Amino acid sequence: MPQKLPRKDVAIIGLGWTGSILANELTDAGLDVVAVERGPWRNTATDFPISYMQDELRFRIQHELFLQPSQNSVTFRHNASQTALPVRNWGAFMLGNGVGGAGVHWNGETWRFLPSDFVLKSHLTQRYGANFIPADMTIQDWGVTWDDLEPHYDAFEYLCGTSGTAGNINGKIQDGGNPFEGARSRPYPTPAMKQGYGHALFGEAAKQLGYKPFPQPSGNLSQAYINPLGVQMGQCTFCGFCEWFGCANYSKASPQTTILPVLMRKSNFEARTECEVMQINLDRSRKRATGITYVDSSGEEWEQPADLVLLCAFQLFNVQMLLHSGIGTPYDPQTGQGQIGRNFTHQTVSGALGFFDKDKYNFNPFISAGSIGMCIDEFNGDNFDHGPLGFVGGGYIGQVQTNGRPIQTTAVPPDTPAWGSKWKQALKDNYLSNINVGPACHGSFYAYRDTYLDLDPTYKDRFGRPLMRLTIDLHDNEIKMSAFLTDKYAEILQKMGAKQVVKQPRKGPYDITQYQTSHLCGGAIMGDNPGNSALNRYLQSWDVPNLFVQGASAFPQNCGYNPTGTVGALAYWSAAAIVSQYLKNPGPLVHA
Amino acid sequence: MRDWHKYIASISRALLIGAALIWPVVAQAGGIDPQKFDQIERGRYLTVVGDCAACHTLPGSGHDFAGGRPLETPFGVLLAPNITPDPQTGIGAWTDDEFVNALQKGTGRGGTQLFPAMPYTYYTKVTRDDALAIRAYLDTLPAVHNPVNVDQLPFPFSVRASMRVWNELFFTPGEFQPDSSKSAEWNRGAYLTEGLGHCGMCHTPKNALGGDKTAEQMQGYNLQGWFAPNITNDMRIGLGSWSADDIVTYLKTGHNQTSAATGLMAEEIDLSTSKVSDEDLKAIAVYLKDRPGDPSSQQNSPQLSPLAADQGVMKAGAQIYADECSGCHGANGKGAPGLFPSLSGTPVVQQNDVTSVVHVILRGAMSAGTKPAPTAAAMPAFAWVMNDDQVAAVATYIRNSWGNAAPAVKVGDVTKERAALTERSD
Fold first, then answer.
1. What is the C-alpha separation between B396 and B390, in angstroms, rounded?
2. pTM score > 0.80 for this model?
3. Least CB-packed of A18, A131, A404, A432 within 10 Å?
4. Domain extents for chain B?
């Protein structure tokens, strides 16, 4: 029997980006909030110190900051006819662990989705007709619009100090920014980062080809910044150790560098780390959460009663928690009924290697940052006519090379031996003069009926709970899109002056061993009615109104951008609804 | 979000307040009404200025001023006594005169000698009115029954009577006497700095018996693993390069454009100066800016030339600095205002005593976090990655770069400090 703790107003599961944002907003509203975090407490100087953080072996290869599969893993298969097997070493995506969550190890790309992305299905149907959308594709509108979210995108960017060049301020197109972006209410809080040579050259080549290149919006700051909470950030030093690493000098936006210093000072907030939540408890009606039950690092089980429960874990674990807690109806791919686990998506990324004349080009690839780079958005979303192309979706294309790290960023031309003196010579010849961007084409991944999450029938975690089972594969639409984007990217590399371009379009089947971003989305999606979604437009559970489920698990499908900006905007949007509507009248904010 | 727990809690609070209203009022000697709001409120403020909680509240105990915090002195450890109104274990039974005498004369109940860990050598300057206001405030606190065995010192330091001799040698009793040639602001600053603020307790050098070296007032003192720096107006190692506003901002927020507080000062700022009024901070700053410092240092400072950059130790230090330090403190040593302290022209870096510089490099340091400056950026520890030669080299380098000038750091000093820090439990 778990020991029962004194009641709190709010129990938050997971203290990453969304948990921190919600905790800060709700403590400001006067509520007594506890956040329960599976992983350890983490802070800059003690856990990401400059004296050892730049260690590719330790953090990138050996995954020190990440969840260990022995604590929790997932199983994987391509389709329902296969038997899923457990993942024993992370590959296709990385699962954060500890305070700060994925906000610790992300690169910092801070994008907004396109206005049309939020009304994807109606937009595509209107422009191309319903038959243009593949039959098994289950895309849908979000239930929120660009106009709803704009102020909250703004709040997240000003929290993070995002460095960028605006492309559209209140409808007026701005030079040097992304002309395709939705109208923003004001410029980025800090100017765009300075670009490396390779990044800048890409921008010039793109311009020569008639595109409108712009700097990637960056959570690695171009200059020192004080956010609206009074928390200070430093200037990025271009060390090139962002993704997979914590930032050693307070220049990458993360919960640690933007919110936690203020949150941890509040007497009405408490964080309990190394405590793994077992389930969300429901009352007998199963329509009201009574709190959560968790196990601490000593193996003691605790019940934390709370009036409001916020599920703020990573996407996979949000879905898993709903299934383990018996909230909502599990998705059935046969009937298409049930919402929990439906519309699971990832990101369709691809790239190309560009090899340049080493006597003419020196890119110094190690001078870099997680969200540096020049991009074009001509082929994202529905910014281009898909009619003749036979696919939907797209992505930004960019020279967004984040690093020149010694173990993995070691591209050599094809036909080079994989080891030995010839490999060493080729590496030496090409290290400074190649462009090597994994996700240069950052493509969308739309939802399909046969791509979903459910509980594995065989494999269990250390508590005996079923692991999350991923059933996922690439579909023709995404493969076509990836080939198209990769061709466009390769043309720009050629224009830059590459003597050899090696295209690497994304091809099926889905490879669970190869990194493809950590942008897992869906499984507990938002929408306009309980028949098409797990959550209403405020991220409130249709089934349990005192439960809100944050994060990318709410994305009905994934777009051609990195998700964190939208995750942050949705968190602020949801927090505003809780404070201004829910607290005054606890109950469903949208009546089904 | 109301529920019955809170409802019951509010009822209990109402009952408590009711009980307080009918509590028999104990008659107090003296002319000032200890129940008057402005008296109590002034007393509360003065306990903040005096940072009484730093010693008399055991952190995490949940009992304000109930004592029990170990106080480290060069002669051993004392436990701070309970100063809540509990009659048996606190000061509830003390008369006002006994209380005032404790502050002004260093005597306890029945005339026992207090140890000067209680800064009566400074509090003697506090006026009787202010002392009674503090008493009035302390009387409003919940009485906590917490017996504290203060006497933890080893023989012979445990002999309280010996303090009579010590007082003869090092203690000048007497309330603060204003200097009519100075402004009211200066005098207020002097009163706070020399009295309740007891800044010299840490910042004034002590002799072998723990008495202040009055001729070297505020010129810095080594204690508890740190060197509390020179806070005279010396240009190189004191506050000469800071404006009065820089001092106020530092005391208010823990940070200013060039520096960040850490260690004992971060605690002092958290508990005390961040809550002191801007006017009083300004007065303290004005007074400190008028402290002349060591005349010989003043003369020497501008003439002290930095070590030559081409010396081996400076070259080694420069390389270590570029690899390990420049990411935050910058190639030019200027840091980032409010976030990463500047090392260029910074007094704490150039102190004659290298304890704090070496401490920070070996152990890292967390800066003060306050409401107006909540970030509390921290520096990581380097003890595990740098040997004593390397620490000495990089410390020597930062002490002699970007306009700084200070004697080289000896490897032996680093060895000693490393050993001392290994022993420390904090």
1. 10
2. yes
3. A131
4. 30-166, 184-300, 302-423
Answer whether A567 touches B (CB < 8 Å): no
Active site residue A519: yes
Q: How many CB pairs under 8 A join A and B?
A: 77
Tokens of residue B36, six digits: 């008057």
Q: Please give the class, per CATH, of domain B302-423.
A: mainly alpha
**Which CATH topology does A3-68+92-582 take?**
FAD/NAD(P)-binding domain (3.50.50)
Question: A51 to chain B: nearest residue by CA?
Answer: B324
Q: Measured between alpha carbons, how far is A162 from A191 in angstroms, rounded to an integer? A: 8
Tens of pLDDT, residue by residue over A413-453, are: 999 999 999 999 999 999 999 999 989 999 999 999 999 99
CA distance A273 to chain B (A): 19
Of A52, A234, A261, the CB nearest to B374: A261
Token pair for residue A153? 């995108």
What is the separation of C-alpha A199 from the centre of its chain, rounded to a whole number of angstroms?
Answer: 23
Mind listing the pLDDT tens digit for each residue in B298-330? 545 556 889 999 999 999 999 999 999 999 999
User: Which residue, among B338, B349, B114, B321, has the nearest Cα to B220 in the 3D structure?
Assistant: B349
User: Mean per-residue pLDDT for B351-364?
Assistant: 96
Kindly indicate whether the domain formed by B30-166 is annotated with CATH number 3.30.160.
Answer: no
Query: CA distances (Å), B27 to each of B17, B30, B34, B83, in order?
Result: 20, 10, 10, 20
Mutant choice from A28, A43, A51 vs B, greatest count of B C-beta within 10 A: A51
Task: Pick A234's closest partner by Cβ from B3, B324, B339.
Answer: B339
Gap from A217 CA to chain B (nearest CA, Å): 22
Question: Confidence band (pLDDT; 50, 70, 90) for B151?
Answer: confident
- Cα radius of gyration rounded to whole Å, chain B: 23
Query: Hey, where are the domains in chain A?
Result: 3-68+92-582
Q: What is the DSSP letter of B323?
A: I
Q: Do A49 and B364 touch (CB under 8 A)?
A: yes
The whole-chain average pLDDT of chain B stands at 89
Q: What pLDDT shows up at residue B21?
A: 43
Are B372 and A43 a contacting pair at CB < 8 A?
Answer: no
How far apart (Å, rounded) are the C-alpha atoms in residues A140 and A117?
10
Q: Answer for the pair B420, B225: CB distance below 8 angstroms, yes or no.
A: yes
C-alpha span between B387 and B398 (Å, rounded): 17
CB proximity A93 to B under 8 Å: no
Q: What is the DSSP string of B147-167?
A: ------PPTTTT-TTHHHHHH
Of B337, B374, B378, the CB nearest to A265: B374
pLDDT in tens, A321-346: 999 999 999 999 999 999 999 999 99
Check pLDDT > 90 for residue B24. Answer: no
Query: Is pLDDT of A121 > 60?
Result: yes
Distance from the Cα of A582 to chain B's closest Cα (Å) equals 11
Q: Do domains B30-166 and B184-300 have the same CATH topology?
A: yes
A388-400 tens-digit pLDDT: 999 999 999 999 9
- Say how far apart CA A387 and CA A382 lie, in whole Å: 10
What average pLDDT does the segment A233-249 reach? 96
Side-chain-facing half-sphere of B129: CA atoms under 13 Å: 4
Digit-coded pLDDT (tens) for B216-243:
999 999 999 999 999 999 988 999 999 9
User: Is the CB of residue A46 less than 8 Å away from at least one CB of chain B?
Assistant: yes
The predicted model gives A255-277 an average pLDDT of 98
Report which secondary-structure segment, H or E, holds A269. strand A269-272
Residue A31 at interface with chain B, using a CB cutoff of 8 Å = yes
pLDDT exceeds 60 at position B375: yes
Backbone angles phi, psi at A549, to 5 degrees: -115, 110
Mean pLDDT for A261-287 is 97
**Protein fold of B184-300:** Cytochrome Bc1 Complex; Chain D, domain 2 (1.10.760)
